[in-house]
Amino acid sequence: MQMSLAIAEALEQGPVSVAIDLKPALSFKELGERLQRDFDDFSKRTFRNILRELLPQKLIEPFLQVSGIQPNKCGNQINAAERERLLMLLKSLRFNIKSTLPLSSAMVTAGGVSLKEIDPRTMASKLVRGLYFCGEVMDIDAETGGYNLQAAFSTGYVAGESAAAFVNEVV
Question: What gap in Å lies between CA 23 and CA 56, rounded to an integer?
């Protein structure tokens, strides 16, 4: 999610390719040693079952497809070239991004009403009397981790209080 805005902007310039390190805590050497150890220790397990020790459940099927290694192949049958391919995929899983998902699928958004058009003390529009803004309808976005929710709650409270005060003043 941290990269989504940058990727959406990059897609406007052309195709985007992304590489993900699925084991960032381990160096290539350390991960290679771990794979060798896993294939030795779990020599009778299938490749699919060995992957359960390495990856989240939802990644196993897609990973089996891109690895080209037979899912039912036992650990002791996986050769050096296959181990090397697995190592490269775990350290640099590359894929192309063709487009963003539709707005209806968005978890966070970017863009919206310019903050220059909003009074930050009341969340009122500087252009339209009696109009108040809050949350992601405004041009604010933040790092993931609850900051967007906090901004939505805080601005929602201020906008609601201010709109209620406006209505009471008008009536």
Answer: 12
The structure tokens 């299938």 sit at 46
pLDDT less than 70: residues of the chain: 1-2, 106-109, 142-145
The residues, any chain, with a CB within 8 Å of residue 157's CB and separated by 6 or more, are none
Hey, which bits of 6-131 come out as E strands?
16-20, 93-97, 118-119, 124-125
Hey, what are 168's tokens? 């009471």
pLDDT of the residue at 22: 93
Closest by CA to 166, choosing from 133, 122, 126, is: 122
Place of tokens 């050769």: 79
Which residues, other chains included, contact 73 with Cβ-Cβ below 8 Å and sequence gap of 6+? 46, 47
